Amino acid sequence: MKSIVLAEKPSVAREIARVLGCTQKSKGYIEGPQYIVTWALGHLVELAEPEDYDPKYKTWNLEDLPLLPAKMNLKVMRETSQQFKAINQLCKRRDCNELIIATDAGREGELVARWIIELVHWRKPLKRLWISSQTDRAIKEGFARLRPGAEYENLYASAVCRAEADWLVGLNVTRALTCKYNAQLAAGRVQTPTLATLMNREKEIQLFQSQPYWTVWADYGSFQAMWREKDGHDGRLWDQAQAESIVAKLEGKSARVERLKTIEKQELQPLAYDLTELQRDANRKLGFSAKQTSNVLQRLYEQHKLVTYPRTDSRYLTSDLVPTLKGRLDSIAVGPYTALAGPLLRKPLQITKRIADDSKVSDHHAIIPTEQYINLAALSSDERRLHDLIVRRFIALFYPVSRYDETSLVLTVNGQFFYTKGKILKDIGWKEVYGRIAVDEDDVEVGEDDEQDRTPEQILPELAIGQVFPVKSCRLRALQTQPPARFTEASLLTQMEKYNLGTPATRADIIEKLLHTDTIERVQNRMIPTAKGKQLIEIVASELRSPELTAEWEHELERIAKGKGNRAKFMAGIREQTIKLVSEVKTETRTYTPHNVTQSKCPECEKPLLEVKSKRGKTLVCSDRECGYRRAAQPMLSNKRCPQCRKKMEIHTGKAGKYAQCRPCNFIEKLDDEHKGGRAGRKQQGQLARQFSDNTTIGSSLGDALKEALLKQKED
Asked: Could you tell me the sign of the dihedral formed by the alpha carbons of 555, 558, 562, 567, in that order?
């Protein structure tokens, strides 16, 4: 008897099949003596669409909402139905008595497999492969300790609740908004509060009123200090005359050291990466978007097998990994990392709770390198740079803390107080891994005010209380208060994590969805709401804008995954919430004005065309959704030449059909079906292939000429 292994992607399935000794390739699976490895293509099964319940829902009507099916049905996705059929046939084979789920070890991976299993009606034993890396060793060890599928029933229940809640809330509110305002408006339990977060920051910026202020700096030759009124004061002076009077009091004076304190401080090693922290760091240091980081990281995990499971929310390791850590250090001790990892390999590693703590790991531990040896030349530029972040963070875990002495100094000059600090590095510690003194560990948006007021890093001379220093010079700095900074993807991810909006695996997709629906835009790495987004957040229900509501949902989903929550109660609450949200849309009195109206008119109904973004560039669509007219914003050029100026003509579609137009001389020619152009379809390609197959005699002037030359040569 054989076991069916269900992987999430063909690439992963091929690797598992190779490790398990499966070599017989068939369409949709790879078979071996003990195992048959097959795969999904992401999701093969999805929740049924409204029209699957009743054909009348193909047409969107506000009166039909909310849609609340008594039982949520599943259906096979049409695009990938052939692969589902292949899996279904395997599950009907009599020589298969066990199915092993080998999809990604997480909530979404569980859903991918379980929905397939539900539709094929699998009733035989079910097991789960739960691994954190794709190396041969991890796969072999994972199959040696397969877990019963029943252990993951709660995880599956949580995944189903998440999917059904998103369907109920997202689909109903999106349809309600679109029908009510006759515009493509989308809302959801995660994307809407994320958009609201950006809008709240935008309002803070708009309401902000800049104020002038001044700071006073004194130069004592070997160091500088800033005036402050007293301890705890930030040094800002809001009156220019007062600032100038302080400067006047310093001319020709000397400063006396009033207070002096030196303490030893230390900076702990940064924790290992989880997905969100890595996305933040990659955005700050490499300029990667969150989605780009996810894609590159997935290749490092699946294709190159150099890092552990990426979609984790933990920054700690588990105790069972401790014996493998030296092996992982040894595997990365190549190229630029040889000198950094070498000293660690020659002595026992110091493993603290900051590195390994079982109590702080739920499904998966932090992202760290695997024991796979690195071939840096095989990595692309993006892969090398992201891998470098992970490797250096991993090495830094085992280096000592960074230590320095910080000296705080208070001086008095003619009754005025001046403050400064200085650092003396004692042990560079883990910062040696990064080759610089400072590493930005916290994702803090530093405003320009902070940058302007910050005391420069300086090394202070030998000092003693009562020591006197002449004031070499004094300067007055005129500054302006600055508004809060707009969110970068790094700081937006921090906000989403803070309010539990989405999961590490979904946050990047939420940001991309907001960008794709034109509700936000990316401007020089800053995320800014568009005119559409600003209007949408005003007309959507206030409850849906609140991050607290979504945080409550995510918290309850986690409780369900751990077997502590009530699935039926959660879904009942979601249905009640959906009814309320749709009702609020129906009774809303505010209006929506499309922000992307163009001067062009629809050739079908004469209504204005809207310019929208699509995968193929900008598209013009009719502002009336029922009309459905759309065309490319830029006319398509044909190979047809104008008979007057010989330039390429544009292809247009009008009421009478397609026509070609020469823009310079305005020559117009109607196109018949035979002049439509474009690639031939499959049927047409087949006809052409039969027409010009080997059975058809086609003359060849070159061939005929050669034959004649050979005959003539023989005759001679």
From this structure: positive
Evaluate if residue 125 carries a pLDDT over 50. yes
CA distances from 140 to 14, 17, 110, 151, 252 (A): 14, 11, 20, 21, 79
The catalytically annotated residue of 152, 156, 301, 309 is 309
Is the pTM higher than 0.90? The answer reads: no
- Establish how many alpha carbons lie within 13 A of residue 384's alpha carbon, considering only the half-sphere containing its beta carbon: 11
Give me the sign of the Cα torsion angle 376, 380, 382, 383: negative
Instruction: In whole angstroms, give the CA distance from residue 292 to residue 508.
Output: 9
Q: Are strands 648-654 and 212-219 parallel, antiparallel or unpaired?
A: unpaired
Q: Which string of b and e fits 529-550 if b means at least 16 CB within 10 Å? A: bbebbbbbbebbbeebbebebb
pLDDT of residue 610: 82
- Please tell me the least confidently modeled range out of 120-134, 157-171, 601-615: 601-615
**Pure H helices in 287-337:** 290-302, 325-332
Q: d(Cα 501, Cα 489) in Å, to the nearest integer?
A: 14
Measured CA to CA, the distance from residue 146 to residue 471 in angstroms comes to 74
The residue written with tokens 């202020």 in the block is 213
Percent pLDDT > 90 in the chain is 70
> Residue-wise over 16-47: b if at least 16 C-beta within 10 A, else e?
bbebbebeeeeebbbbbeebbbbbbeebbbeb
Q: Is 213 a catalytic residue?
A: no
| Residue 650 pLDDT greater than 50, yes or no | yes
Calpha distance 322→397 (Å, rounded)? 13
